[in-house]
Amino acid sequence: MDRRITTIAFDADDTLWQNETFYRLTQERFAALLARHVEKDRLHERLLAAERRNLGRYGFGIKGFMLSMIETAIEVTEERVPAGVIGEIIAAGQEMLAHPIELLDHAREAVEALAADYRVLLVTKGDLLDQERKLAQSGLGDMFHAVEIVSDKNARVYDRIFRRHGDGPERALMVGNSLKSDVLPPIEAGGFGVHVPHGLTWALEHADPPDGHPRFFTLPDLSGLPALVERLNENLP
Amino acid sequence: MDRRITTIAFDADDTLWQNETFYRLTQERFAALLARHVEKDRLHERLLAAERRNLGRYGFGIKGFMLSMIETAIEVTEERVPAGVIGEIIAAGQEMLAHPIELLDHAREAVEALAADYRVLLVTKGDLLDQERKLAQSGLGDMFHAVEIVSDKNARVYDRIFRRHGDGPERALMVGNSLKSDVLPPIEAGGFGVHVPHGLTWALEHADPPDGHPRFFTLPDLSGLPALVERLNENLP
What we know:
Radius of gyration of chain A: 19 Å
Number of helices of chain A: 9
CATH topology of the largest domain in chain A: Rossmann fold
Distance between the termini of chain A: 7 Å
Strand content of chain A: 5-15%
Number of strands of chain A: 6
Oligomer: homodimer
């Protein structure tokens, strides 16, 4: 039976384009707005706690981040935050939603090279409309065989996606910057996971690497991905 | 060539389960919170303007509604709204996100009856996670051949969905409560559109019925849908 990889799935945020850096910049602005009320580290701790608490109701994405910032501003000021500051938080979030995307180095070349020989997918979480906007802006949309915007990235979700758009998880490879979302669950589903670290990773995405796992790989950036896939396929029956 | 209908797509909110009624209740609560600052009709007018203005950045769903309420509260009070009131608005939105769904009359029976003979789809917009939660709660999930949560419902989107999961728009029928989102665009795509009015419809979903169009139908509730589809198919080659 042919076991070669036929399907390559890419994460989007911080794999193909910058994302976390805009969250960090907004958090800096958030801290400056509340500097009179609370010390920066303490504020970020409270914000992270709110994001964790709200993840199950808001899911991933900028709108939930905005709501968690507002909730945190009310909480840390014991309801004394002026409405004008809340207005500034909303404006900061709306700027994130309008920010032009910045493709990461080698992203276009890697997708292009692989799209010639493989079924190339995009698998991302976050707000539906915002992810669609970023994909449209990226100019990469036409290269993807399918785009899946999902509310969570777990082994069951990858299994479903790789069956629907590919030849099952065993013949699929996922690449992304988050070990927790892009690497561990596709490996658990039976596929390959390639980690391309990004300098900045959201605290809620941290996980330990599955060092020594035969289907786990790390690359410093996307430029080496086509060669890695080719090498893997040379060694598969 | 066989032209009989093979694919039946359902809208979710206010077609299978209650939705707008919870928005209206929250708007009442919103008006009560701001009663000291602004008269109710004027507030609803400002809120609708904010929702319209923000639709392109937030898309559909409760999170965007929460953010538009907060923005409106700041605007109508000229930045004097107390933080405690903003906290109440967030709490009201979170209650909407946690509210158990209420199936509409005949919804289960109609989906069940049609799922036996047709490919049955769910096509809905709104926040990804919230729609998934409602579908899971509805107990109807297993009856759908596919579920599409989309950021917008236009003719192009319906065309893509009916090609992907069915035999193209010409052999598909969409049913829902919104003429603008559930009826006009599938008809424009070449399919059938069935309007099942709900007592409450969001102002931004209003549209005129395509009276006299040969592929447009109206039903008072979902109980008549299986018979309508059967009748249509008897008259198609």
